[in-house]
């Protein structure tokens, strides 16, 4: 459990970080909270000759909320997400989900940027960001661009981010929708057996908009448009929930692991999705 | 003399003797990070060793090329079996009478097996060098199932003559290790064949691992000038390690010093002798400098001793009224690649023959077949005394299955069959003599405490509500009544590598009235420094706070067999009391001399000897100690010291009654422990707070094992649970609030009546948690499902019973 030797860099700004990234190409990787990357290095599953620590780059930190738009710096820790009351008021789903990630020790270190950039299907933030329709801002040697969370994930550990790009911040609209993040895990600090994020807006007793996304049920987070459609216009009655669950299950593709076989995961996913919808509806 | 005076009470309180919840003296250093563990040891010039391990579960080694590794700067040596062979150290004997490869000799037999030992300037260089050792393997067929192993043509142990008997008698097959039989099989079968009722069950007690927080490790230092070898290590039995090291290395035993410093939990994992120790010693001899080897978590989980892995089938018979008439048990025991179980020599399946449990079963039979597979060796008693966890799980499941068969309440079935108070000492059908017990009282107290009838009523209502579709949660009531067998053990039938399982204590009283006592045991978190001082305080009248307890250094401590199997209090605790009594006997003579009366005219009173009938005339233990060193007393040698080696006349038999109430989400398999009640009877209670701590810890490890903790292998022999992400180690989050309770039935043969308690909660807890899960599904036709009851297996049970639609 000892990583191979590496060079440690600690630039003070993005420009510095980018130049090291460009210089070393494939041999370099940025380090945020380190709670995904360092275990991989220790297991020697990741070989990173040049490690670029982002912690001194102050522009990557902080949470701002302006005109209904939330901007979260990539280096904001999960702990900070949980304890920021303004953020909680603007998008309560974030705290509910972040509290179900790992344990307090991990959350003091792990960052939102690292969580969404990592590309591990087990990470909770990607599905959450898809549910919230967040926008990721990436900065590379050739400038800045944005990409929607819903378009970002390509396969396990493969995202739309270019190797030479740094995720600088995440932005999303504040929302008053009913919300729920439902997650089944084996123990504290475990990745999801199945998890689901749901947002529902209700007007005059019916669902006017809905968003459903899932974690660890495919090699990428799954945003299920069909599940949302099954809910819109209805009252989240048993039939609607059932239809939404069926639609969501059609979009996932879980694999067997120590948490259990596919049949079990499909079943649990159905239960978790239904519970998330019902809870979000109850808060809408 | 009035025994109840406040003055006397104050003197008793001042001693902090037996029965007092004295705070643990160890905790000041542990909670401040001031402990001194093996990995804290750093010696000048010390090198680090680490292993190249096999990625395969079964493969022939075609070649090992160490050149590139040796070329790496900072690498001092790379040892392979070839280097150890001239010293005859490429293999070593196991505690179970088998032998085990120290470094792979021609082939590997389990994933993670030690192939080469890299010695480098630091652990970082060692880790890099490991990657540079090139090993060419040729894969062989892998066997991970012991039942298939006995039918397989694949020979796992090519080093053994398939026809020759093993350490425990004849072998039936090249992958068979031993058959161990106890009891009367023909008689048992006859009873079962004729019985009114017979219940049967097959159960797999899965492989798991003790997983102490601190993994195994050592520092070996060979001083070539004075010829002395010092070995610091995570040893639960330091003296045995010294003897083994001497026998293996040829270094005379007086030239070997073994030290167990602070140990961060053992639970059986640190009883065995591991290749890392041997390689470190050899490396230190070769290099002439100290060599450290410390496992990482994956090494620990994958290679040093596992626990359990028993495939058990049982038949239990009873009369129409539910009186048990006979019990038949067969076990196929998966021992992995080498038989390295840690059991007393004559007990190849440990004390599995305690499997008649707490019940008066007139006839029984136990047969155990040990089998080789391509899994890590081990088979230690994880927080239990030599397979008693398996035995208690077996009988507590058999009772439940019989209750189902008879459509009886399992609490009542237990009550009908308990050994009665007046039957003690009780001779069990499988050869044990239970020392003392009062099971009915404990059981009634437990059932009353939890309102058992009320729980059953609530459960029945829940089942109805479930059937009506009003809830998707079931309620399980887990019962267990266990009898432990601890304190191994009488030298006449218990030994390890020929060393009788006595234990020892040596006491020195200092002139100013404080003392040091040294024992042959070694605390790994049990709090010996606290509790043994309390025994002594009560025995010799010196305050516990003035007594240092020291263990673990073979140069200073008297020979003992170490700490495991809850043996410290039953054996070393007894030695402590006995040595204390020797001190007291001499103190009595000194006191009589000082008081100018006859020896028989003084009596011990808390912290002094008083003249009978004249309590104002006394000598305190402090005064007596001083006199022992500064007065010439006719006929009495100076000094005040004693040593006792205690050979226990019998084991002790702690028992307890546990109840668990659990809610189970049928759709997700998620469990919620609503209540856990634990009544323990460990005889005389030395320190209630330490007992409570032991109960909490043992129950937590029981919860772990019952609900998810396992070492799982795939068909290729790959370990699927090699990290704490997948190997379940509960945290405060998963652990319920435990309610503890007790009765006190002292052991009649132990000097202070104490029985040992560290492992009871684990032994009794596992079946209790498991029974709760199984009980929830009983109304729907469940008879038995195997642990661990993790979410998906519970879900699978519900699914198989048709509860999902
Ligand atoms: C015991 C344990 C339990 C856990 N449980 C959970 C859980 O339940 N749910 C969950 O979601 N996570 C869990 N995690 C992971 C944890 O949340 C990580 O902190 C998170 O996945 C990564 O964030 P980080 O800041 O630590 O990133 P790092 O580990 O530093 O980086 C992760 C990856 O992202 C890249 N990266 C990081 N920041 C950027 C950036 N700004 N731009 C571009 N690339 C970047 C890195 O190069 C690296 O490849 C757990 C971790 C542990 C150790």
TrEMBL record, chain A:
PROSITE patterns (alphabetical): FAD_PCMH
The keyword Oxidoreductase appears for this protein: yes
MF terms (GO), sorted A to Z: FAD binding; oxidoreductase activity
Signal sequence residues: none
Key words of the record: FAD, Flavoprotein, Oxidoreductase
InterPro entries: CO_DH_flav_C (IPR005107), CO_DH_flav_C_dom_sf (IPR036683), Diverse_Substr_Oxidored (IPR051312), FAD-bd_PCMH (IPR016166), FAD-bd_PCMH-like_sf (IPR036318), FAD-bd_PCMH_sub1 (IPR016167), FAD-bd_PCMH_sub2 (IPR016169), Mopterin_DH_FAD-bd (IPR002346)
Name of the protein this chain belongs to: Carbon-monoxide dehydrogenase medium subunit
From TrEMBL, chain B:
Residue ranges of every copy of the Aldehyde oxidase/xanthine dehydrogenase a/b hammerhead domain listed in the record: 32-141
Molecular-function annotations in GO: anaerobic carbon-monoxide dehydrogenase activity; carbon-monoxide oxygenase activity; copper ion binding; iron ion binding; molybdenum ion binding
Catalyzed chemical reaction(s): CO + a quinone + H2O = a quinol + CO2
Cofactor(s) of this protein: Cu(+); Mo-molybdopterin cytosine dinucleotide
UniProt keyword list: Copper, Metal-binding, Molybdenum, Oxidoreductase
SUPFAM superfamilies to which the protein is assigned, alphabetical: CO dehydrogenase molybdoprotein N-domain-like (SSF54665), Molybdenum cofactor-binding domain (SSF56003)
Keyword Oxidoreductase: yes
UniProt-listed Enzyme Commission number(s): 1.2.5.3
PANTHER family on file: ALDEHYDE OXIDASE 1-RELATED, XANTHINE DEHYDROGENASE
Known role: Catalyzes the oxidation of carbon monoxide to carbon dioxide.
Subunit field text: Dimer of heterotrimers. Each heterotrimer consists of a large, a medium and a small subunit.
Name of this chain's protein: Carbon monoxide dehydrogenase large chain
Taxonomic lineage from the root: Bacteria, Pseudomonadati, Pseudomonadota, Alphaproteobacteria, Rhodobacterales
């Amino acid at each position: 459990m000892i990583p191979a030797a590496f060079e440690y860099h600690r630039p003070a700004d993005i420009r510095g970080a980018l130049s090291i990234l460009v210089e070393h190409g494939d041999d370099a990787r940025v380090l945020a909270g380190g709670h995904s990357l360092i275990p991989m290095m220790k297991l020697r599953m990741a070989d990173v000759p040049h490690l670029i620590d982002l912690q001194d780059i102050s522009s990557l930190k902080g949470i701002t909320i302006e005109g209904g738009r939330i901007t979260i710096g990539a280096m904001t820790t999960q702990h900070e997400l949980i304890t920021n009351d303004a953020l909680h008021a603007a998008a309560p789903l974030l705290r509910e989900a972040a509290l179900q990630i790992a344990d307090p020790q991990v959350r003091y270190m792990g960052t939102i940027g690292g969580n969404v950039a990592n590309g591990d299907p087990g990470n909770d933030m990607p599905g959450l960001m898809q549910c919230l329709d967040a926008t990721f801002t990436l900065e590379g040697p050739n400038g800045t661009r944005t990409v929607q969370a819903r378009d970002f994930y390509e396969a396990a550990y493969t995202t739309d981010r270019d190797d030479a790009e740094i995720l600088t911040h995440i932005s999303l609209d504040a929302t008053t929708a009913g919300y729920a993040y439902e997650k089944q895990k084996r123990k504290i600090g475990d990745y999801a057996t199945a998890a689901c994020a749901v947002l529902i807006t209700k007007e005059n007793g019916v669902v006017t908009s809905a968003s459903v996304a899932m974690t660890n049920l495919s090699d990428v987070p799954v945003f299920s448009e069909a599940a949302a459609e099954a809910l819109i216009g209805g009252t989240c009655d048993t039939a609607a929930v059932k239809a939404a669950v069926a639609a969501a299950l059609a979009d996932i593709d879980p694999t067997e692991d120590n948490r259990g076989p596919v049949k079990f995961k499909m079943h649990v996913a159905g239960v978790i999705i239904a519970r998330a919808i019902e809870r979000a509806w109850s808060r809408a | 003399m009035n025994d109840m005076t406040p003055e006397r009470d104050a003197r008793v309180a001042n001693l902090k003797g037996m029965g007092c919840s004295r705070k643990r003296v160890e905790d000041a250093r542990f909670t401040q990070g001031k402990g001194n563990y093996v990995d804290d040891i750093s010696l000048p010039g010390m090198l680090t060793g680490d292993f190249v391990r096999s990625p395969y579960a079964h493969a022939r080694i075609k070649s090992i090329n160490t050149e590139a590794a040796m070329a790496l700067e900072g690498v001092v040596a790379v040892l392979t079996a070839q280097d150890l062979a001239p010293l005859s150290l490429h293999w070593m004997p196991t505690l179970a009478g088998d032998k085990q490869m120290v470094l792979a000799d021609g082939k590997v037999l389990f994933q993670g097996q030690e192939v080469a030992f890299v010695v480098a300037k630091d652990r970082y260089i060692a880790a890099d060098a490991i990657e540079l050792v090139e090993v060419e393997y040729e894969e062989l067929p892998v066997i991970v199932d012991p039942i298939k192993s006995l039918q397989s043509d694949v020979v796992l142990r090519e080093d053994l003559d398939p026809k020759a008997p093993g350490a425990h008698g004849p072998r039936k097959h090249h992958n068979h290790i031993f058959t161990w039989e106890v009891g009367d099989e023909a008689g048992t079968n006859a009873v079962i064949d004729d019985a009114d009722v017979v219940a049967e069950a097959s159960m797999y007690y899965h492989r798991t691992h003790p997983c102490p927080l601190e993994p195994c490790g050592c520092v070996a230092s060979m001083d070539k000038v004075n010829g002395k070898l010092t070995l610091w290590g995570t040893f639960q039995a330091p003296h045995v390690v010294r003897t083994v090291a001497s026998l293996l290395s040829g270094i005379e035993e007086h030239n070997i010093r073994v030290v167990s410093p602070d140990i961060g939990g053992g639970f059986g994992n640190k009883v065995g002798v591991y290749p890392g120790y041997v390689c470190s010693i050899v490396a230190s001899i070769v290099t002439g400098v100290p060599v450290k080897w410390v496992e990482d978590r994956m090494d620990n989980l994958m290679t040093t001793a596992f626990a359990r892995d028993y495939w058990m089938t049982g038949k239990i018979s009873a009369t129409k009224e539910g009186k048990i008439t006979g019990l038949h048990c067969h076990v196929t025991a998966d021992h992995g690649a080498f038989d390295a179980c840690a059991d007393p020599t004559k007990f190849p399946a440990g004390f599995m023959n305690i499997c008649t449990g707490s019940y008066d079963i007139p006839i029984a039979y136990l047969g155990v077949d040990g089998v080789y597979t391509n899994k890590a060796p081990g088979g230690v008693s994880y927080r239990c005394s030599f397979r008693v966890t398996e035995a208690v799980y077996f009988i507590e499941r058999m009772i439940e299955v019989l209750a189902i068969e008879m459509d009886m309440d399992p609490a009542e079935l237990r009550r009908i069959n308990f050994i009665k108070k007046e039957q003690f000492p009780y001779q069990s059908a499988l050869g044990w003599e239970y020392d003392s017990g009062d099971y009915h009282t404990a059981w009634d107290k437990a059932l009353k405490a939890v309102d058992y009838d009320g729980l059953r009523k609530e459960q029945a209502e829940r089942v109805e509500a479930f059937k009506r579709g009003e809830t998707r949660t079931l309620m399980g009531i887990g019962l267990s009544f266990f009898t432990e067998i601890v304190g191994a053990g009488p030298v006449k039938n218990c030994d390890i590598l020929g060393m009788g399982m006595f234990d020892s204590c040596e006491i020195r009283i200092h002139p100013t009235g404080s003392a040091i006592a040294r024992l042959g045991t070694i605390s790994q978190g049990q709090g010996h420094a606290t509790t043994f001082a309390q025994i002594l305080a009560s025995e010799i009248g010196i305050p516990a706070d003035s007594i240092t307890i020291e263990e673990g250094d073979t140069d200073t401590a008297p020979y003992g067999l170490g700490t495991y199997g809850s043996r410290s209090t039953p054996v070393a605790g007894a030695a402590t009391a006995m040595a204390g009594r020797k001190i007291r006997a001499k103190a009595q003579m000194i006191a009589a001399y000082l008081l100018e009366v006859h020896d028989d005219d003084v009596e011990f009173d808390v912290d002094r000897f008083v003249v009978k009938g004249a309590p104002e005339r006394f000598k305190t233990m402090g005064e007596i100690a001083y006199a022992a060193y500064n007065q010439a007393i006719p006929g009495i040698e100076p000094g005040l010291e004693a040593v006792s080696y205690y050979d226990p006349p019998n084991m002790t038999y702690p028992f307890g009654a546990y109840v668990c109430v659990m809610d189970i989400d049928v759709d997700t398999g998620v469990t919620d422990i609503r209540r856990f009640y634990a009544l323990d009877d460990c005889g005389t209670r030395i320190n209630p707070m330490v007992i409570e701590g032991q109960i909490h810890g043992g129950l937590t490890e029981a919860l772990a094992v019952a609900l998810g903790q396992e070492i799982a292998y795939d068909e290729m022999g790959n370990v699927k649970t090699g990290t704490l992400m997948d190997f379940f180690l509960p945290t405060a989050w998963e652990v319920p609030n435990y309610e503890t309770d007790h009765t006190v039935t002292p052991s009649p043969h132990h000097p202070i009546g104490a029985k040992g308690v560290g492992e009871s909660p684990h032994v009794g807890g596992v079946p209790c948690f498991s029974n709760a899960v199984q009980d929830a599904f009983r109304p729907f036709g469940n008879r038995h499902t195997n642990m661990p009851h993790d979410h998906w297996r519970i879900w699978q049970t519900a699914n198989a019973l048709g509860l999902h639609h």
